[in-house]
């Protein structure tokens, strides 16, 4: 029988090949002290497992698997295919990735392979097969881990092998019909018409902007090619090691748009994610919260695993900020609150050599007599105290629609404003809703929306007809729908929806924009009507006409002075709102005030800008998670048992500054 995962697993990447035997013996004792019960093993071990083309060395890994099992620690065993060994790329330099401008990316780092390379695929599947045959029934094995952060450094390769694979993908997409491809790509523009798909290349660097639909299709192809590498390994593991779940670690973060994780999630037995804060950005806990809710969306609402995050500083940013006291525990509980059933880190022991030697670990360079180690031990205790919430999930009345393909399309070149960023409005609306205590699901537009009372559609630039129909049906059935600027502009081929903006949503919203009025850098406008006094907006305005909607707020000044900036239209049993400008956070807060009042959706007690309050719900119980990022205690009106302290609370919970609390509600 497969070994089950721990209920709320704790641990991280373990790289024993980096350390001498004496250190490894110490690791077992320290892992027990820290409460580690799951480690990820062999992620970057290909060169150790196959040091030469005709040589295999599994003895060291056998020993580690056996020792970890004896210590009561489960293993998330990687297929080790994330980074080919130097002998492989030396023999087959044609498998190396190539950039858009034709530069070869050479070995010396990691992920030095073209995702379309048949040579890479052949050798990776051989390694995967040998791993599965050797360890499929090992008692320590709880989870298979395919590759690592697929696409992190080689998401899009433009080599000739990729070009051939791209053409094969296009033949499937367009039924081998070059006329369909020409129509979809709009090749009548700039004399780009093809008479054979064999003439098509990736969107390499050209004298001017490449065809936008060519760029969009290449992004789709590249995501699909990486996913196909996962599926190929997954199928080997399913065949040889049935019953053991298979995952690969996503990177659901603001800086990682290249993989369509909402589509990938359907192919995983259990979704896992890596998340790292950007030290230079303010409000990192809000980006974390959005990304965690989006990760739950990739998992179809099911629990998921936090495969990597950091105890403190990372090594790869220009300036690597160390986490402050309590921050690592707060970050971890924020993920758990939004559905994570594991809290794992990169890595167990901070490395002494290599590119990531300054990346923090569970065990820091300074050893156990450190604040960081004491917090690691405390986090383990907290997770043990709240592990009864594992297996539960969130059930919310509010959805934010999110689509990676709309992200790709939104941020292509030759658009009205370089200042329009896809995640910007989604994150700000998520922030405001969360600060109001509103739980949010971040879901793909194809999700059934019938259970949601509030549906938020931010910057959904690219949209198909099925999504338009679904959003319209939700409003007609009683939901309040909120759509922001630069939504509904194009169809799935990146063709403008004619007749006036916002294109696909024009009829639903009861508005028509005849001209887009992007604001210049540093320019802002005032908007009044969302409450007492005006609020600031920037980036965007529109020459907007009412066609059935009513004006809620209008521009005071700027290129659209006197015109509507926010509108509302009654639709069936519900309503459709349009926000035609980029409101500053204060304006978004006022908008959300109106939406919460209109919908009557539940708001969780005690929430605020610096206090996250979320709920996980199981079959027979619910748990309220409170994470206080502020410098003052946070009062929360909740009844039940606070699991971290074991204290009964009856409406009088006080979460200390920088602290966390988890209440089993009664």
Gross geometry: globular
| Rounded Rg | 26 Å
Mean pLDDT rating: 97
The main sheet orders its strands as: 11-10-12-13-20-19-18-15-16-21
Which regions contain 5 or more consecutive residues with pLDDT less than 50? none
Structural class designation = alpha/beta
Largest sheet: 10 strands, mixed
Number of helices: 17
What percentage of amino acids are in beta strands? 15-25%
How many E strands? 28
The residue fraction in helices comes out at 25-40%
Rounded to the nearest angstrom, the distance between the terminal CA atoms is: 37 Å
General description of the model:
- The protein starts with 8 loop residues before the first strand and ends with a strand.
- The protein has a 10-stranded mixed β-sheet with strand order 11-10-12-13-20-19-18-15-16-21, sandwiched between helices.
- Helix content is 30%, strand content 20%.
- Helix 5 (118-135) packs parallel to helix 8 (212-240).
- The protein is built from 17 helices and 28 strands.
- By secondary structure, it is of the alpha/beta class.
- It is globular and about 75 Å long.
């Amino acid at each position: 029988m497969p070994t089950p995962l721990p209920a709320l697993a704790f641990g991280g990447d373990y790289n024993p090949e980096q350390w001498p035997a004496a250190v490894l013996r110490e690791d077992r004792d320290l892992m027990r002290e820290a409460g580690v019960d799951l480690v990820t093993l062999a992620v970057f071990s290909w060169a150790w497992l196959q040091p030469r083309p005709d040589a295999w060395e599994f003895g060291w890994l056998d020993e580690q698997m056996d020792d970890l099992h004896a210590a009561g620690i489960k293993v998330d065993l990687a297929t080790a295919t994330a980074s080919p060994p130097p002998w492989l790329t030396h023999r087959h330099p044609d498998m190396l990735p190539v950039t858009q401008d034709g530069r070869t990316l050479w070995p010396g780092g990691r992920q030095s392979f073209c995702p379309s390379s048949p040579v890479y695929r052949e050798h990776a599947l051989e390694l995967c097969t040998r791993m599965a045959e050797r360890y499929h029934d090992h008692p320590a094995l709880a989870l298979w881990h395919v590759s690592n952060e697929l696409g992190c450094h080689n998401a899009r390769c433009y080599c000739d092998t990729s070009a051939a694979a791209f053409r094969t993908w296009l033949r499937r997409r367009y039924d081998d019909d070059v006329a369909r491809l020409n129509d979809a790509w709009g090749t009548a523009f700039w004399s780009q018409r093809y008479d054979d798909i064999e003439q098509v290349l990736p969107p390499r660097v050209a004298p001017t902007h490449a065809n936008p639909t060519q760029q969009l299709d290449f992004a789709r192809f590249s995501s699909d090619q990486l996913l196909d590498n996962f599926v190929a390994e997954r199928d080997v593991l399913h065949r040889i090691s049935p019953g053991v779940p298979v995952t690969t670690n996503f990177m659901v973060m603001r800086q990682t748009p290249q993989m369509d994780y909402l589509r990938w999630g359907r192919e995983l037995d259990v979704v896992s994610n890596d998340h790292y804060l950007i030290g230079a950005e303010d409000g990192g806990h809000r980006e974390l919260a959005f990304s965690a809710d989006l990760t739950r969306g990739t998992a179809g609402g099911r629990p998921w695993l936090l495969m990597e995050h950091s105890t403190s500083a990372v090594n790869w940013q220009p300036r690597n900020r160390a986490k402050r006291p309590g921050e690592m525990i707060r970050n971890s509980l924020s993920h758990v609150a939004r559905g994570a059933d594991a809290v794992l880190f990169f890595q167990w022991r901070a490395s002494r050599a290599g590119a990531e030697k300054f990346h923090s670990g569970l065990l820091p360079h300074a050893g156990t007599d450190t604040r960081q180690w004491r917090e690691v031990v405390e986090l383990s205790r907290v997770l043990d105290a709240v592990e009864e919430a594992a297996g539960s999930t969130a059930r919310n009345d509010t959805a934010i629609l999110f689509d990676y393909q709309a992200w790709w399309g939104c941020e292509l070149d030759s658009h009205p404003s370089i200042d329009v960023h896809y995640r910007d409005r989604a994150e700000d609306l998520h922030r405001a809703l969360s600060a109001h205590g509103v739980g949010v699901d971040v879901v793909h537009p194809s999700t059934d929306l019938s259970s949601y009372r509030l549906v938020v559609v931010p910057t959904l630039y690219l949209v198909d007809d099925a999504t338009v129909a679904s959003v319209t049906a939700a409003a007609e059935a009683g939901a309040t729908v909120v759509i922001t600027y630069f939504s509904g502009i194009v169809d799935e081929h990146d063709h403008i929806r004619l007749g006036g903006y916002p294109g696909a949503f024009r009829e639903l919203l009861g508005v028509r924009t005849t001209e887009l009025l992007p604001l210049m850098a540093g320019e802002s406008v005032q908007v009044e009507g969302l409450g007492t006094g005006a609020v600031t907006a920037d980036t965007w305005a529109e020459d907007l006409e009412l066609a059935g909607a009513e004006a809620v707020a209008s521009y005071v000044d700027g290129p659209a002075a006197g015109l509507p900036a926010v509108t509302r239209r009654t639709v069936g049993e519900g309503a459709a709102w349009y926000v035609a400008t980029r409101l500053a956070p204060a304006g978004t807060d006022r908008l959300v005030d109106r939406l919460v009042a209109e919908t009557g959706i539940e708001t969780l007690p005690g929430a605020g800008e610096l206090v996250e309050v979320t709920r996980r719900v199981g079959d027979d119980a619910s748990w309220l998670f409170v994470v206080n990022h502020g410098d003052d205690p946070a009062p929360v009106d909740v009844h039940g048992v606070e699991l971290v302290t074991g204290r009964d609370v009856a409406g009088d919970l006080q979460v200390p500054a920088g602290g966390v609390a988890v209440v089993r509600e009664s």
